[in-house]
Write a structure and sequence with these properties.
about 5% helix, Jelly Rolls, 2 domains, nine-stranded antiparallel sheet, seven-stranded antiparallel sheet, mainly beta, 34 strands
Amino acid sequence: MASCNTPFGAELLSDTTKVSQLSGDRFVDGRRIETLENKGLIKQKGSIRTIEGEDGDTIDCVDIYQQPAFDHPFLKTHIIQMKPNSIPSGPRENSYQAELSQNWHKNAQCPEGSVPIRRTQEDEWVPHRRTQLNHSFYDSSGHEVTSRDNKTRFFTYWTSDGYQNEGCFNLECPGFVQVNQNFVLGSSLEPVSNATLSFDVGITIYKENGNWWLQVQDQVPGYWPGSIFKYLTSNATKINWGGEIYNSEPNGNHIRTQMDSDHFGSKGRSGKASFFRNIGYTDNSGKFRDVEAQSLNTVATRPSCCNSLAAQQALPSVSNRNMNGSNTPTLNGEEGDTIDCVDIYQQPAFDHPFLKNHIIQMKPNSIPSSPKENTYPAELFQNWHKNGQCPEGTVPIRRTQEDEDTRGVKWIPRRTQLNHSFYDISNHEHAIVSFGVGEIYGAHASLNVWNPFVDDGEFSLAQIWVLAGPDEELNTIEAGWKVTSPENKTKLFTFWTSDGYQSTGCFNLECPGFVQVNKNFSLDSPIEPVSRYSAQQFDIGITIYKENGKWWFQVQDQVLGYWPGTIFNYLVSSASRIEWGGEVYNAELGDHHTRTQMGSGHFGNEGYGKASYFRNIGYMDNSGKFIDVEAQSLKKYATRPSCYNVEVANNTNGGFGTHFYFGGPGYSTQCAN
């Protein structure tokens, strides 16, 4: 056996060899006996089809969400990741054909949404094993197990407590999550090597997105979630490659069980000895590196019975690997912004203490129905990608300028209850409508986009608020457009907080929280075109809704990402109130009211084409469907109606549904102070 230190993954190509094995004493701990005897020949839970393999195995096609993994206490609400986001580069020169590695599916296929699980026989047993690279550990008991029917089978094994109580082979206990419908763990491998022909199989284990993935040839059978481990939750410290047998020492003699090909390693690549080739490991860059022969430590428990030999020269490979890689691109937008295409698993969200091992969900399982009548074409929403596209597996993040105040004035505590005393204690002024009815699971509206005048150091915005919790612990999710001085560009933004704007939360991706999944939309990038007074109106549809424990953010028909429910304490369940409307920050720089405009800079009573609006206002109930909000259910509030006001429309004609107009010019003869 050979070993080396390594952090994040291992790769090897091993020849497949049929060996002879004699029966030995059963050495089984109580938990393992119980696990196997309970399974016996009973059909697997969640089985939707049974297939009889040509090799005598019975394969149950089990609903993917009813496989054993979900009985693990840490995986009760686990969301399956169907494939890794990226596969590290490594040797792929295999003489063993992947499609011939198992033949059970010659008789049938498991349907989509299911995984194949071999039905365990009652008389199968699993001996206790220790594998620390230390003579005293090796000599303490026998090792290795092969099937009672002397077939060469592909297997996996895991433990998290030194082979005491946790862990098992294949899917015999909760742990490994299978995602592949064509590959069976524990199933026989054919053909096997002989004196004239060698057949090998490429095995790769690597960590990606908090999971330890298993890859066989070009097939990804599944993964071990990092959460089931104590130490492997971060990285590995050592890799072992080699062979193992279990010696029951019958009659005091050494067992006749062969290891691998039954020839010593010194026979080399003559077609006689078993081999591991293209040995590699993954470092923290996510790339496979060749292991130098001199870095390997070899050990054989009894060299006179079984031994190993590390080759002093690398074995020839069919093709060279490109180890240089390339950095993800940086794009310069026409509006002067710099967009970094960031690896999706290196975005800021993963610095959040609750999201260290978070598995990204690339899209919601279902998208609730909501109004789709948008005059603003989605493909014109942002123009930075005219100069390039972010590649798959990355997300665009606008580079913050050194002179920008990333927290901005949003961090000044503000109150959102519909109560004058709360609103008037800060410099934030609002013209909004509010709605609350029991538990709320989503909010929607389409709002027209403007570019209002903003005084130095101030902002003006139009947005949706999704709220829950008492004022001092307020949880809020916010999204819309805003204009900040001195940039004075209209930009898409998001905001969140979980403690009433005290110490948690931020705009966009300026702190860990929001998980972006869309590679085509950049938060905090300019929106063009914008509406003009008494001219064409451009609006955007914004939808925020809860699905699968996450608050998803959708603009038009594009899903940009989500806020995981775990970063909240009240919104972890549902919202209690929604607000739609405008807000300005009045820095009170002069001896009169700010000139910062809200919305179009015109009062709500001027109506369509002149004032800002929110239309097709809706909320999502616990059925997962959006419902129109009745106009009479809305409560309206304006901090200073003589500066900015709000007018709820009494009709729902023209496809606008429930809607309202809002805004104002700020400083005027009616709004002097």
